[in-house]
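Quick question, first post here. What does this chain look like in 3D?
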Amino acid sequence: MRETSADRFDYWWNNRGTQMDEINQRRGGESLVERVECGGELFYCKRQRGHLFRSLRYPLGRPTVLREAVALSACRRLNIPVPEIQFSGVRYGDGEWLGLLVTRGLTGYLHLDDWFAEDHPRDPEVDTLVLRKMAELLVQFHRGRWQHGSLYPKHLLVKAVTTETGIEVNVLLLDMEKSRQRVRSLAAARHDLQQLHRQWERIPAEQWKILLDHYLSLVSSGRRRALVPDSLTSPGWVTS
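> Answer (accepted):
Ran it through. Tokens below.
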């Protein structure tokens, strides 16, 4: 029998795993992420009930997993590292939206704030490489006029692997259910960088300067003038 989208929806909806966080109860519903093993592979399953976003196009609301799936697909087309979608889909019935987003598992990654919280001797060269790679990812993301919308250190992942030629650093964007494409890339950059700076509480301030300086070095002089910080400790450092 040929497998249908409905069959796949039922399969992933009923395939339960290990709950990763507390249930997110907002947007008129709830959202839960579970880690699921299937066929010896690891997946992350975001399962939602009535967890909606609203827009001019969808004034009555649509599941946020739809917006996240669009953003993830766009990032992959732009060669921006994000989780790979295994399945996404929605269903409406009995007056309620159900939404699913299943992505392939990630191994060896740490959230950016956990990376700097690790209790081990720090290698400043590796830390700098991590932050420079993160800045390069964000510049590429913003050039595509994409705004993350929830850019916290916990949504930036990093993995460092020792190879024969040295340290190889991989970075990745996570949790893009608030992401959207802006008319102007500058607006996207301003929003995300301000937000990330406000959430930089667990990471030393000097590390923020490394990321920001490299970000600014990769953009045009006009863009730099619009994004020049007047303070690295004030959350309102981006000019209006």
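The first helix runs from residue 5 to 14.
The mean pLDDT is 88.
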